[in-house]
């Protein structure tokens, strides 16, 4: 009887530990709920006074769209959805390769590219490599390296977005945090030494 009780306790403890571990890896929204894949969220600055959410803008009418942060608060910007390189994931996990895609975007002269985030090594402003759109959703591998981003926890208080894909094990990549670079009156998103601390608000 005693052995049976000890074994049962071990199973409960092990199961509870696994649940806690899985839960602790989930990215949380502003309500404390796990961020769901395929559901719309606003990416907003963590610190008050740091500006509004994210949207898309052309660079003097040129495509593809650049990702810019709205300067004024409390504008939410455009919502995004997340998809994971791990098909078993049901929620957004820390340190996991993700596609990030803008939704609900309307423009009178739209660029033809997709609205999936893309690290653009050919597009540089003030020494920083920009993040634009035009990526391919899904299909992890060497050809889609620029399309994968990660979410990391910063100081147990807020999150940051990072470009450091691991969908190709034998590829050499540039790694860096994502933050705004001010150029020509706009806060453009780029691989930056100063990350933008963010939170995720369900749309």
UniProtKB/TrEMBL annotation:
CDD domains noted in UniProt: beta-trefoil_STI_VvMLP-like
Domain of life: Eukaryota
A molecular-function term among this protein's GO annotations: peptidase inhibitor activity
UniProt-listed Pfam families: Kunitz_legume
Entries under InterPro entries matching the protein: Kunitz_inhibitor_STI-like_sf, Prot_inh_Kunz-lg
Keywords, in A-Z order: Protease inhibitor, Signal
Secretion signal span: 1-24
Signal recorded as keyword: yes
Xref: SUPFAM superfamilies: STI-like
Family: Belongs to the protease inhibitor I3 (leguminous Kunitz-type inhibitor) family.
Name recorded for this polypeptide: Kunitz family trypsin and protease inhibitor protein
Lineage: Eukaryota, Viridiplantae, Streptophyta, Embryophyta, Tracheophyta
């Amino acid at each position: 009887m005693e052995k049976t009780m000890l074994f049962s306790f071990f199973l409960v403890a092990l199961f509870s530990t696994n649940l806690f571990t899985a839960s602790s890896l989930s990215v949380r929204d502003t309500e404390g709920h796990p961020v769901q894949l395929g559901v719309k969220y606003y990416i907003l600055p963590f610190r008050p006074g740091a500006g509004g959410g994210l949207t898309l803008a052309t660079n003097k009418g040129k495509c593809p769209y650049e990702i810019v942060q709205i300067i004024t608060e409390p504008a939410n910007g455009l919502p995004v959805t997340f998809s994971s390189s791990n098909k078993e994931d049901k929620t957004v996990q820390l340190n996991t390769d993700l596609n990030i895609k803008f939704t609900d975007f309307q423009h009178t002269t739209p660029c033809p590219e997709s609205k999936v985030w893309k690290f653009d090594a050919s597009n540089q402003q003030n020494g920083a490599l920009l993040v634009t759109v035009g990526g391919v959703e899904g299909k992890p591998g060497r050809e889609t390296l620029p399309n994968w981003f990660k979410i990391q926890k910063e100081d147990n208080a807020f999150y940051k977005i990072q470009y450091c894909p691991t969908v190709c094990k034998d590829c050499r990549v540039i790694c860096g945090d994502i933050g705004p670079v001010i150029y020509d009156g706009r806060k453009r998103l780029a691989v930056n030494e100063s990350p933008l601390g963010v939170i995720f608000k369900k749309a």
